[in-house]
Amino acid sequence: MRNKRFILFVCILLVISSCGSCAKHRPLPDVDPVPLPRYNTGITFSSKVLGINVTYDILLPADYNEDKDKRYPVVYCFHGYGDDNTSWNGQYMRGEAKIKSLEETGLEPMIYVFPCGWKTYWCDRYDGTLPYMTMFATEFVPMIDATWRTIADKNHRCITGYSMGGFGAMVTAMKHPDLFLASAPLSMSFRTDEQYMTESQSGWDNQWGKVFGGVGQSGEGRLTDYYKDHCPLHQFTASNKNKYSSVHWFLTCGDDEQQLLFANDDLHVMMRENGYDHEYRVGNGGHSTSYWRTAMEEFLPWFSSLMNGETSWQKAPVDVNVPDDCDFDSEGVFLSEGYISAGKSGGIGLYIAYEGVDLQWIRDAMAIIQRGMPSKKFVLLPCDLDKRTSAEWVSYYKDIYPTDHYQALAIGNAGSDVMQKESLFSALYFENASIGGDIRVSKDKSYFIGATDDGDAYKTANALYKACKSADVTFEYRCRNALDDARTGFLTGIEIIKANLFNF
Q: For a 10 Å CB count at each end of the chain, is N or C smaller?
């Protein structure tokens, strides 16, 4: 009995002690929230529109955890056909590493969102069974703004994508211009009407028909109204200019693409014809992650500048280096050391045809071309077409400066004259050059097409590219950013040509 009373007494003391500690508890230390990693993968969002979960990844700025009140611009990144939300940061694209390297050189911090779009082409399916774009615009973007510290307005929201994702980036911004400040489609996967009409039946049915309608159809039967309503080549008309011009556009595609550059280049021409301001690039490469990673070096800073309120974009693709030690003979011709050592004969004669161009610009171009190639056997021959035709210049120079091969560099208005006499040359280089009439290319020639995206020769570049591609001749095509300073812009083109000169 005594033991029971003792136990009861101890219990009473413990209760009293416990209550006392409740009344006079010492404050616990603050618990810091667990910092978010920069790259978060496999996040799911339950969509009421689709009735299924949508998975996405997100890459946060390096300082996201430091200032809980700071908000950031956001870039949506769409993947290609057959890929998923992880593909932008997979072993081939390595987008996170590229973004970090660009941040080290000054790219401002932004939030990057990588949704999974399956094989939808990022559009609503024509029969209403999979309304992906509706989900993205009405649910997904608001969810991202509510969940993460984005600056939740059009002026701080951009979109990009590669291949199928390029089409999605173009069409999503086209259909929802109120959501996006800028769109950068990379190697946009779409076709001209002619290409779609001749696509294999399985290719059409499985990849495009199930999205845009016309499954089982051939020829014009594939060009449904729903397809036309989503095809940029049917939408960037003069009548739609007010609708789509509130978005800044940046298109890029490699010159080694098998099919896609036909449609992308036609779209560039159409946008030029109808007065749409846009950036357009054609670089060396095919349908590859290496091409898209290189493109990130330009369009991500372009996004950032636009979201900071800047209105112009001046980025030279290469640095101009004009040496001041280029010696010309009495004819204004440059002879390489290799040519002189060979007794002033043999090698390559590069006929530089120009009309209405300042002679000093031509000499600067010659200085760039000869730079770093002393042992190469060549002669640079200026050909002012105000004085003679290109054929007359060849006749004039050929005995004074004999060479084994003739090549031509046509600048601006000299394009037509040189093209008419292409039989004289083994390789032809065109720098913002216009060519009148029908363009025909030869199997035994090589061609280089250089242009700026705002230059007058955009139709020539398009026609010459398609002629070269269709005839399967050797060619290179480059379209670059136009620069406000005309001389620097011209010499930038010469620098790019120099990197390809004498390689044919």
A: N
